[in-house]
Amino acid sequence: MLPISKQKSLDSPPPAVVPQRPTVYLDININKKNAGRLVIQLFADIVPLTAENFRELCTGEKGVGMGGEVLHYKGAKFGVVQDTFIQGGELTHNYGESIYGWRFGDENFIAKHDRPGILSMAHTAGENTNSSLFRISTVKQER
Q1: Strands 134-137, 119-121: parallel, antiparallel or unpaired by DSSP?
Q2: CATH of the domain at 80
Q3: Which portions of the chain are predicted below pLDDT 70?
Q4: Which range marks the domain in which residue 60 is found?
Q5: Is 114 inside a domain boundary?
């Protein structure tokens, strides 16, 4: 809540507090040439475990995972799937690993792919199988 001196009047409610959302980036190279930087704001207030997993995979701060592979998106390949989303993040030969171990559970389904640019983790084998794989929508998803 803002101090009284910052409010317009005592009758008006204070402005809504917007949670701070971490921002990460991926530098994109195509055919070994810089194609730009993808800046991503993480919904840590909605899916904190998922956001932290993605953030640490971007920074590489977790180090080496259970399978002996470096847990870092640096050098990971992307692909476009059916012109509806970009998928990436396969860090190992078995669809990757999360910072929490091989897989971690779904947190919720509040945020939808209702516009281009929405990030989510990609399931590897059904529900509750999140790892390092991720998707970014390129169009509005109908489901």
Answers
A1: antiparallel
A2: 2.40.100.10
A3: 1-19, 93-94, 143
A4: 20-137
A5: yes
Please compute Rg for the chain using Cα positions. Answer: 18
What is the structure's pLDDT at 131?
93
Q: What is the pLDDT of residues 39-75, one digit of tens each?
A: 999 999 999 999 999 999 999 999 999 888 899 999 8
Residue 4 Cα to chain centre, angstroms: 37
Report the number of distinct structural domains present in the chain: 1
In a domain, 2, yes or no: no
* Residue 84 within a domain: yes
State both tokens at 93: 């030969």
Q: What is the 3-state secondary structure (H, E, C) of 71-116?
A: CCCCCCCEEEECCCEEEECCCCCCCCCECCECCECCCCCCCCCCCC
User: CA torsion, points 43, 81, 142, 38, in degrees to nearest 10?
Assistant: 30
**What's the pTM value of the predicted model, to 2 decimals?**
0.82
Q: Would residue 69 count as lying in a domain?
A: yes
Question: Distance of alpha carbon 65 from its chain centroid, rounded?
Answer: 19
Bridge partners, 130 (sequence order): 104
